[in-house]
Amino acid sequence: MAARTRAIETILVGKGLVDPAAVDALIDTYETRVGPRNGARVVAKAWADPAFAEWLRRDATAAIASLGYAGRQGEHMQAVFNENGVHNLIVCTLCSCYPWSVLGLPPVWYKSPPYRSRAVIDPRDVLADVGVTLPVDTKVRVWDPPAELRYIVVPERPPGTGGWDEERLAEIVTRDSMIGTGRARTAP
């Protein structure tokens, strides 16, 4: 995939259709400024501020926008919360609906047909394959967004993080934990 992308970029640049600096700026934007750091800040605020967490449950679009994160592929958001006995997993079975403004660039595997089909058919095995082993009595909810909606998972807050400020909490939130294919780290 990377080789194909470079080849296409080389052709487009060679024909003068794409400015390589513009491509670099776009990639930098999604990798460093609009990436999973935004979503991590949303999760950290939800963990630290019960009123914000409740707002996020009721109206994720407005709550997330209040932090300045809105736009491309994040116009309509819904937050789902991992809680004792419930683990949420996001998969878009028809395309790759993904909230870029909150989670950055989607991982390649998220768009792959094997992930998209297996996550719906056998989510526990998909989670086990990526190192997320859940208790037998934990319910796995699979969320398949329609074209106009994007999801973010609010992972369970790890024990031992009481008293941490939002900045420190954001450091332990991963992109995968906000998709449901991972957990928040236990230490920064």
Describe the secondary-structure layout:
Layout: H1 2-14, H2 20-33, H3 36-48, H4 50-58, H5 60-65, E1 77-81, E2 86-90, H6 100-103, H7 113-121, H8 123-129, E3 139-143, E4 150-154, H9 166-170, H10 175-179
Parallel strand pairs: 1-4, 2-3
Helix pairs in contact: 3-4, 7-8
Helix/strand order, N-terminal first:
HHHHHEEHHHEEHH
Strand order of the largest sheet: 1-4
First CA to last CA: what distance?
Answer: 31 Å
Shape: globular
The description of the largest β-sheet is: 2 strands, parallel
Backbone CA Rg: 17 Å
Explain the overall architecture:
The chain is mostly helical and 188 residues long. It has ten helices and four strands. The strands form two sheets. A two-stranded parallel sheet has the order 1-4. α3 (36-48) packs across α4 and α7 packs across α8 (123-129). The chain is globular and about 55 Å long. It starts with a helix and ends in a 9-residue tail after the last helix. The mean pLDDT is 89.
